[in-house]
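pasting for ref
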Amino acid sequence: MTAVSKSPIRFKKASLLTRIRKHAWLYLLGLPGMAILAIFNYLPMGSLIMAFEDYNPFIGLIHSPFAGLKHFARLFNDDKFYLMLWNTLKISFLSLITFPAPIILALLLNEVRSNAYKKAIQTSVYLPHFLSWTIVVSLTFFLLSSEQVLINKIIVSSGGEARQFLFDKSIIYYIIVIQSVWKGIGWGSIVYLAAIAGIDMGLYEAAKIDGANKFQSIIHITLPCILPTVAVMLILKMGSIISVDFEQVLLMTNALVKEKLEVFEVYIYQNGVKSGSTQFSYTTAIGMFKSVVSTILVITTNKIVSSNGMRGIL
């Protein structure tokens, strides 16, 4: 009896031109986004060569003298480098602790059955995302100012003493994190609500037949189903772990908490914008250092996620 070996069927991969013709409208839809990405993200990367030069805007990138790693050495020897790194990591770590907040909000909103009530809640939690940091910080001043405004009036009326919250080094990080959560929690929950909406309702019906309550359905169905989305959002979050919101920190800075809010973004602004063109190469080196660290964190987190059986972003 002769064994007949069957060769596996190989499908010819369609060429790029064929795929573009087949999905022309989809590519056309994505064209504005790709153009913005290319113009504002990829084209400026050519200017990173500035970090390795003593850049002079009057003679341009090509003719500026090469400086090697001079500006990186200056950064690592800067007395403020480790202070800025430590402050940034502390703020980012506190922000990372609040990472589950949008997930919890999405789970709670998903359980609201009244459409009118649900829309009212969604509108109220989404609205802060569209407010500028100037307005958010102004509201913070209104609530926490030492001139016995709202919070201090409540404290004084309860028999306590007014406190200078905005000048207190021990709580300034918590104020910044609370601001960030209040401003971003609603917008961040949209992705998770979309992931929850894609879950097969038959799973919930089967769980209900088996006697599972709402909480058990969330734990054993909703959370496992949205876990891939959570993993992707965590990877993206790790990419910004060495960054803080420049406008927020700048507006919250005052003389008494300046040391606690000395971060890379504000330092780049003060040395690269306010001081004129003399520090362009140095501040570009700082930005490049942040980008390299962020890339390493994203790749590492993606590898950890992939090794646990989930699909990452790379």
